[in-house]
Amino acid sequence: GYVIYKIGCADGAITGSNGTGLVGPCTSCANGTTIDSQDTCPAPDQVYERACQDVLFSPTLNGPWKRMNLSFSSWDWARANLGLESHGPVIMPNGTVLTFTRSWGSPAPLPWSAIWLATADSWNGTYHLVGEEPKFVVKQGAATETKSTDGPGPAFQTGMEDTHMFMNGAGYFHALFHTWDDTNVGGHAYSRDGVKWTLSNTTAYTNHVETVGGNEIVYGRRERPHVFLDDEGNPTHLITGVTYPPADFSFTHVQGIGA
């Protein structure tokens, strides 16, 4: 069969995604630009992540496609607003799933938009966090206090989103992210075993793209990274969602790797 991991609620949604920051309909759009004025766009509400952990699945590419809600095991939403949101997993030969996802707006001492490692025995199984319980040092004036998160902590305590994990032909794990930077928007992490990860100091890609003719295009936003792999597991193309400033309508950009 086939499974599509996606972002957002789609059918019957009453909230927007983190990217739009909207809840319900917005009536102030013109020329592809969302103008948040005169209270025509409702305020954001991130609780959609609690209900929109959906995948689409079908026995064939021609359908019929059905929706299924996924879940974390006994998750405490008061601890962290963490859902299976905007992620692309690795599915192992035995059906086990390994993926990164992110939390949003969680209370201190957790980071605002941290990346977490999760796993499940199957794509439609119950997902669990992977990792050790971290300790955070919280400063209160001249005093300091060490606090625990009461469970596995984030893999990366930095502002990133749109996770895409893959395994190359050599059997090594890699992951791409959208980082919150004006230019160096492509984050990259790697791992030998899929459990212990290292965040690279080298930017995977920027919002500047050079064309075949030698011209340069500077996109306003470049997010949602994915890679296309050949039959040997080698990345051949980088696929991202991009926008032209100042408008915020988006389209899919495909760039050859090493081209």
Topology:
Blueprint lengths: L1 E4 L23 E2 L2 E2 L19 E5 L7 E4 L1 E2 L14 E2 L1 E2 L5 E6 L12 E6 L5 E5 L4 E6 L2 E6 L11 E8 L5 E7 L6 E6 L6 E2 L8 E3 L5 E3 L2 E9 L5 E9 L6 E7 L3
Parallel strand pairs: 6-11, 7-14
Antiparallel strand pairs: 1-4, 2-3, 4-5, 8-9, 9-10, 10-11, 12-13, 14-15, 15-16, 16-17, 18-19, 20-21, 21-22
Q: What low-confidence regions span 5 or more consecutive residues with pLDDT below 50?
A: 10-23, 38-45
Strand order of the largest sheet: 6-11-10-9-8
Q: Sketch the major β-sheet.
A: 5 strands, mixed
What is the mean pLDDT?
79
E-strand count: 22
- For the termini, the CA-CA separation is 33 Å
Output the keywords:
mainly beta; 22 strands; 5-stranded mixed sheet; about 40% strand; about 260 residues
Describe the structure.
There is one protein chain. The protein has 259 residues and is mainly beta. Helices cover 0% and strands 41% of the residues. The chain contains no helices and 22 strands. The strands form 7 sheets. Strands 6-11-10-9-8 form a 5-stranded mixed beta sheet, with no helix packed on it. A hairpin with a 7-residue loop joins strand 4 and strand 5 (66-69). It is globular and about 55 Å long.
Task: Write a brief structural summary.
The protein has strands spanning 2-5, 29-30, 33-34, 54-58, 66-69, 71-72, 87-88, 90-91, 97-102, 115-120, 126-130, 135-140, 143-148, 160-167, 173-179, 186-191, 198-199, 208-210, 216-218, 221-229, 235-243, 250-256. The chain is mostly beta strands and 259 residues long.
